[in-house]
Amino acid sequence: MTTRELPTYREQAFIYLNQAHDELEKGDLRQASEKGWGAAAQMVKAVAARRGLRHRAHRDLINVVSGLDDPDLIIGFGIAQTLHQNFYEGLLDKNSVSLYLSTVGALIEALQANELG
To answer: What angle do CA 100, 106, 110 make, to 5 degrees?
Structure first.
């Protein structure tokens, strides 16, 4: 039996972002939203792991982003949290989900630069 190597947090972030756009295209706004949230959360976990910070709970992720002291990252992560809420509530329309996913894309790019730099 062989063990399959799991994607890193960073790799998983981009996998989820691609899946979010696929779900959006299919019209499944709840799944698109949750994959968008997952993309953001995975990239925050990458930053946290790199810095040796806790990253198991939502509160941990919020603390990591807040600790970066960058208003754009904090706002972007707040938008990602709204996508997570949309998975449960289904309140956002397709245009909003699309715009929020664009913000999450920019967020994970910025976080990736932060994680690697």
So the answer is: 140
Beta carbons of 46 and 111 less than 8 angstroms apart:
yes
pTM attached to this predicted model: 0.93
Q: Distance (Å, rounded) from C-alpha 43 to C-alpha 13?
A: 6
Tokens of residue 18, six digits: 């691609």
pLDDT digits (tens, 9 = 90+) for 38-60: 999 999 999 999 999 999 999 99
pLDDT digits (tens, 9 = 90+) for 6-46: 789 999 999 999 999 999 999 999 999 999 999 999 999 99
Residue 58 to residues 4, 61, 63, 105: CA-CA distances in angstroms?
Answer: 28, 5, 9, 19
Which residue matches tokens 């289904």? 90
